[in-house]
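Chain A, query sequence.
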Amino acid sequence: MRGFIRYLFFLLLPGLVVSCATTPEMPPVNAPSFATRGIKTVALQPVIFRGGTYERPMTYCERDIPNQLRFHLGRFLEQKGYLVKRIDRPPQPHSSLPDPLATEKPATVLAQTPMEVDAVLVVWVDHYKQLGLCEHVRTKGLEIQATAALFSVAESAEVWRDSASESDFSSGNPVTWVTYRIPWKLLLTLPNAP
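Chain A, predicted structure.
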């Protein structure tokens, strides 16, 4: 009987711990010098993969990774008080040619800026490695290193930058974990909207 109770306790404990856990809030980062720029509305570019053909999502099982990264970036920007406008553009073909927006030149980044936007946030995935993300694969894994930069429209210059990396080779769903944690880590140091 004692062994059964111990078994039941260890069986239910992980579920209780997970159900009591809260989602992390973005901590406020107050920077008076950044607030003077008056950035309130941010245009969010699609996530750009700077690597070659094999360093970007290609298979059926990976097709939603850029959208999930972008979704969480938008949510965390809104938590920091920014208004978010998503910039849409046609998907880039899977080729060995680099993405035209893989450059870090402010003129290129700001060329497609919509009206009434104070800044543009660009996220470049510098390293992408996946290990069998399809459902039939037992040992799944995902590793991403990314860089985010905020370009001010008024100044035509980069005003903030950070980079982050995250990997998961042990859980059953690494896409969910990594696509949530990368945006969270990237935007930790971005000051809140004024």
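Residues 168 and 174 are 5 Å apart (CA to CA). The mean pLDDT is 79.
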